[in-house]
Amino acid sequence: MLAQLLVGGLGTGCIYALVGLGFTLVYRTMRMVNFAQGQVFMAGTFLGLFGAQQFGLPALPLLLLVAVISFAVGMLLERVVFRRLYASHEVFVVGAIGLGVMIENGFRIVYPEPLPFPKIFGAGVYHLHGAVFQKTYLWILIVTLVLVAALHVMFAYTRTGRALRAVASDGEIAATMGVNVQRAIGATFGLSFAIAAVAGVLIGPLYFVSPDLGDMVGLKAFSAAVLGGINSVVGTILGGLALGLMEALAAFYISTDYKDLLAFAILVLMLLVRPQGLLGRVVPVKV
Amino acid sequence: MRAGLAVGIASVIALCILGLFASDYLLEIATLVLIESIAVVGLGFLTGFAGRISLAQGALYGVGAYAAALLVTRTGLPPLVGLPVAIVAASVIGTVLGTPAIRLSGLYFVMSTIGIQQILWILLMHWSSLTGGPQGVRGIPALSVGGFVLDTPARFYVAALIGAVASYLLARRVIASRFGLFLRAVSDDELASATAGVAVLRAKATALALSGGWAGAAGFLHAYYLRYVHPDMFTLDLSVVFLTMAMFGGYRSLEGMLLATVILGGASEYLRPFGQFRLVAYGGLLVLSMMFFPRGLLAVLPIRWRR
Amino acid sequence: MLDVGSVQLSFRGVRALGGVSLVLHEGEVLGIIGPNGSGKSTLFNVVTGIYTPDGGTVRFRGQAITGLDPRAVVGRGIARTYQNKRLFPSLSVLENVLVPALRRERGGLLGDMLGLPLARAGWRAARARAAECLEFVGLAAMAAVGAGSLAYGQQNRLELARALALEPKLLLLDEPAAGLTQDERTEMRGLIERIHARGVSIALVEHDMRVVMGLCSRIVVLDHGEVIAVGAPAEIARDPAVIAAYLGAPEDG
After folding, report:
1. 245-284 in A: which are within 8 Å (CB) of B?
2. Closest CB from A94, A219, A264 relative to B53
3. Please, are residues C4 and C18 in contact by the beta-carbon 8 Å criterion?
4. Predicted structure pTM score
């Protein structure tokens, strides 16, 4: 039984980690929280649904297509919407929430009922230590690992990655070094959208999909990012995995009703006790 | 100042006339708008005057509504007792949960309020022995004030109108008090306020208590108006709606908040048959107003017209 | 009156204050000078409770105030102005001064809401005190103007009025003459003299040597977070260590 819980928890944990990464990337660069992230995740699910149903795309091309489209949309929205919200944290948060509300309800108009998602990862089932799990979980784990590794390689070794890190650390200095800061910021948003959307496709086959998904997953991924440290990539990933596992265990050993409470209780506690997260660093403020 | 007073009296008279001649449908919309205005004004203490965004007002409104509902259905106490109980319950819960968070920076505070909103909603939904869980609380009797029973739309409209006017007048007195002055100073520059002798944490906690109290009062009216409460009435979406109304009309203008509540609340009810489009419009309004009028609509007016 | 003993403070490994000790006697005007970054404002921040030092003590009138929060320090009788003017821009000039003026008055929110006589008396007293402070700095005519739209020199004077409204025993002035024209500086000097004449002890951080030399009976010189000289203005002007620290004529604001 424990093995089953762990597998389930790890799966959801990976999803939280990926969506949470979206929050972290934007926060590191702009010090802002994009609360539409959950809805981006949800949009990715439906984009995947559309691609699988209308065009019968298999898994890998579907994931790539969703990633590319979401990246472009992310860059576009940054240019058109987010750029005008940088006035203050509060303005950005409220504006992002408004955007999220638009996206969620826009999708509700098109998809009012929960729908099943095609088994794009195959119907296979695996056995491991008494746990039975769908092939989807394997895909989730592998794609998460691949994405995280790819991100790491990009940030550490490529010019683009270093440019993005420079902008995240200090926009003005980066500009003097010849980095096109505007484009880097756009790319950061694009990346965060792409990762969240891919996570949306990954989770599709596990449940019935509906526009309600975005809210809860978004907020929980956010809690996970805060837990691990919203300005730490490693922290967010670990936070996501930790939250997924804790939820799975709590649902079984305590109660399914209150498992959602866990994420929010963690969020509030972390903010009160250690807002920079377990692995984050404090950013000092000059008096 | 004279102009403001004239406008105010004219509005109240207009609202009374509305009450006499309007259809039941229009009265229902107006009643809901008036009730919501109370919660929005309460939120305004935080957003406009303390400079803090809160997304927990929906849940606190629900706490007030549930307090009133549970009190009247579980005990034999007269309905009106529910009003102070609702106010105190929402105020205390808001203050207890919010005070540890309010010393955090603005961004972290918003995030905490989201957590608080969700936690409260989950408790309302799942603590069935206390709240009735997904069933909600049904069968709330009509509000009776000293033998006078408010069971028609027109009668409840009057109660809501009185409540909204009282909330506005009280709020004005609060803003004009030294506390209001300190709060504005704190939202301008917290450090300078502390070195000018302001008890910053106490001021913020008081703002929390007030915003909770206002939410509780509005919740009380909500419970007796709909005669039924359910957790899904008090979700994050409602908090977002309240926030939009509080910020849309000019972040420090009580009149602006009322105007925004009327416009947005009225439009929202009017668009209700259009289902999801209504919410898309809401979201769009929120985004657009943040993009172009982050200080609220009334901030666009020349200074002479504002308070 | 003020006794700073071996105060040390570091920020993330960078030493801001390395064992600073100084004494300010009741009734004197003490000048604190030093090149940019020598720790003058940091010292003020430690005394007023914005920073808690890593080591050392601060005593005021015999009592330890190290590590007290800013409001408590104000309660003991110390007020300050800020180098980069921390006014309340959305409040009027009068309201800016009312905030500190109301501090010790009776009556609170409830008193104001109920219109209690005690509360109203408190407002009257505070308004009177605020008006007096504005009069003193020459801003009485601007009382209703928004603080955000004041000219630079007027902002300096409003900062001063706000500190005065707290009726302090010790006033810490952080570069009150910075950015002022020559005439405005002379005015500021006059204001500070008049404040001193009322019996307020003053610690003055300033770059303008004419202001410092003219007002201060003693001067402390800081460099790189340490005291390198203490003495009368004439001695300090001749001290080789001080001259070396400044590398020539000091900047004018």
Report:
1. 257-258, 260-261, 264-265, 267-268, 271-272, 275
2. A94
3. no
4. 0.85
Instruction: Write the residue in B170, B176, B196 that is nearest to C100 by C-beta.
Output: B196
The partner residues of C221 in beta bridges, in order of sequence, read: C33, C229
State the chains in contact with B (3 or more Cβ–Cβ pairs under 8 Å). A, C
Instruction: For residues B201 and B182, give the distance between their C-alpha atoms in angstroms, rounded to a whole number.
Output: 11
Identify the DSSP state of C200.
-
- The pLDDT of C231-241, averaged and rounded, is 81
Which among A223, A257, A271 has CB closest to B108?
A271
- With beta carbons under 8 A apart, name residues in chain A contacting B43: none
Q: Which two tokens stand for residue B60?
A: 């606190």
Is the pLDDT at C175 greater than 70? The verdict is yes
Substitution target in A268, A269, A276, A285 with the highest count of B β-carbons within 10 Å is: A268
Checking if the pLDDT of A106 tops 70, the result is: yes
Q: What is the domain count for chain C? A: 2
> Which residue shows structure tokens 């390395």?
C18
**Contact B111/A99, CB-based, under 8 Å?**
no
The CATH class of the A2-273 domain is mainly alpha
> Which stretches does DSSP call E strand in A21-158?
125-128, 131-134
Residue C70 lies in a domain: yes
Q: Above 70 in pLDDT, residue B297?
A: no
- Adjacent-strand bridge partners of C205: C32, C174
Give the whole-angstrom CA distance, residue B209 versus residue B216: 10
Residue C242: domain span = 2-87+162-246
The strand pair at C29-33 and C55-60 is best described as unpaired
Complex confidence, ipTM: 0.84
Instruction: Name which of C130, C175, C131, C181 is nearest C151 in CA terms.
Output: C181
Q: How many residues comprise chain B? A: 307
CATH number of B2-305: 1.10.3470
Q: Is residue C156 part of a domain?
A: no
What's the rounded mean pLDDT across residues C48-58? 87
Mean pLDDT of B272-300: 75
Cα A37 to its chain centre, rounded Å, is: 7
Residue boundaries of the structural domains of chain A: 2-273
Inter-residue contact B234 to B248 (CB < 8 Å): no
